[in-house]
Design brief:
102 residues; alpha+beta; 3-stranded antiparallel sheet; two-stranded antiparallel ribbon; 1 helix; 19% helix
Length: 102
Amino acid sequence: MHIRNRLFFVLALGLNATALAQNVQPDTLQQGTRSVTNGSTQLIEQGTYVNRDGVVVHRPGHTVSGAVPPDASAQCRDGSYSFSLHHSGTCSHHGGVSRWLK
């Protein structure tokens, strides 16, 4: 396994363990000083990643209804919605940004 993948895996395990230990729902992890829900119950795809600031962010996902989910920052060219906090790399595995929402 590549070292970067190992690091991500270790970070992901640590964050999941932290969330479980704090009895926090996976879609309501702490982001800095505010809690982020991102309407993940409306999203078909689930999951999070840790951005360059060490903040847990919901992965891009498609909504069941097609409506823009809360806290979405961009819509990707494949129709998914991104919750990225930085422009750099947003929708990089989803065809790029179709439109910015914030």
